[in-house]
Amino acid sequence: MSKTPLLDTIPDPAALRALPEERLRELAGELRTETVDVVSRTGGHLGAGLGVIELTVALHYVFETPTDKIVWDVGHQSYPHKILTGRRARMGTLRQGGGLSGFTKRAESVYDAFGAAHSSTSISAGLGMAVARDLAHDDNHVVCVIGDGAMTAGMAYEAMNNAGSMKSRLIVILNDNNMSIAPNVGAISAYLSRLISSRSYRGVRHIAKQLAQHLPKPLERAAKRAEEYARGLATGGTLFEELGFYYVGPIDGHNLDHLLPVLRNVRDAKNQGPILLHVVTEKGHGYKPAVDSDDKYHGVTKFDVVTGAQAKAKAAAPAYTKVFAEALIAEAARDPKIVAVTAAMPSGTGLDLFAKRFPERCFDVGIAEQHAVTFSAGLAAEGFRPFAAIYSTFLQRAYDQVVHDVAIQSLPVRFAIDRAGLVGADGPTHAGAFDVTYLATLPNFVVMAAADEAELFDMVATAARIDDRPSAVRYPRGEGWGLALPAAGEPLALGRGRIVREGAVAAILSFGARLAECLKAADELAAHGFSTTVADARFAKPLDRDLVTRLAREHEVLLTIEEGSVGGFAAHVLQFLAQAGMLDHGLKVRPMTLPDLFIDQDAPQKMYDVAGLNAPHIVRTALEALGKDIRAVERPARA
Q: Could you tell me the domains of the chain?
């Protein structure tokens, strides 16, 4: 017998809207069961989705999706939405190669109004959609669902300020699941929310404002302020009112009797302008393991539904993130001026470990990468040694601050760039593909990439001692090689790489964590009779010109390998070789970078196959450059 008999009859939101209202609670329960079951088999983001089950049902019930647009901020919470919008049968492919994205994706469904995987974009996108609707003289609704965490980012307030001044009809739902703004909510709050969102209240309020305009100006201002601040003090909405939004709430986001009438009221408020509905939810609601440990159940591996125990493979080697944390702790123990900064990712960057050891020297600034960078610049300006630990893909959001507030002033902010390269299930939105290109182009910037975990230890020590300019060290997601780690790192000579293996015919110059694949490729080339040098560049900037010169002069073919986009490490190597005239006499250079496309989620090995950066691709590239018949060479190797 099916555990979800009602959900089994709902192929799309139109079928949902045909249900009698009294059955929606039953549907929500089955949707929660289905969400837990799916994620237990695939892994992914769980707690956020469970927190918006009732809200998801209510939104699709009240609004005519997909004509009405729902914009989910970030997309962590979108799995229930996917189940209700025709993708239930494919949920078993979530975050897998050829399967559904773990975030909203426009190419995946007409119900995904806007693709997202970074936070705080929903109100900006929704406002653009609302203005487009107005310009086209359409009449659909636009609803943005944004979490209280995403509201820590300045972009959300920039969008609200703009929306409040434009008066376009827009509904923003603040999904507050940390009780960070609201008091406890209940029947009285729900009643007040229904009242102030109703047409009659809004009508009376409008009349009162009209009357107040005929009073002397001081009395008019006083009357307006009294009414708005009275509502604000009761509900926490004063800030949103000042930004030009009509505030409603807070209401219980798990009570459909509260949600449905209020959603209908804000839907029907045709001439109100922007409205903010404050909904309080519980992350992981309805599944006890997720409620009891909401941090560990934000993103999960496969797990046992009954016990909640997650199935985690035993690591063969420590993760790079943990190695970075240990290296930074070692440096901070030596130097009291070292501080650490993260933008709402303490566990993702390893700084939760640093914070346990040095709580007063670790700063989580919220989802505010721009602020994190300039905050770090301020610390550096006063003689401290900040490490800003930010994912590669998230640092993109603060590029202006990296240029103007750090690089131009040559302030020694140290960027620890996690998730360099391709990242597997999170797909292209979280892939660290561009940081080498966008950082190494900046004057006086030191850019390093660790080939293994021992080198990461040394690069953290190196960055800690660079006091005259900014620096960055990039490292991948996942485990290292299993190398022995020192108690503390040994600083590297700036701009100096290393020869890992000597050869004579071809040279492979690796920048970053593809070094293991380069060594595999060198083994295979040697088996075919082609002696190959393998070098670890360590630095994209300053470039080791002596190393590059030696490789160019002593080998027929030079390959550069990097897990980054065109315009990165290889561009600096080629620029130097061209200016030095070393491309004029027959040297064959083959840069191998990430291709000019966004690679969809899959197992990392398969993603690097798509990218052409695994050992067989390196071998093929070298042999083709040497002018060898690939088929003739490959046949004996397989025999």
A: 7-300 (3.40.50.970), 320-474 (3.40.50.970), 498-638 (3.40.50.920)
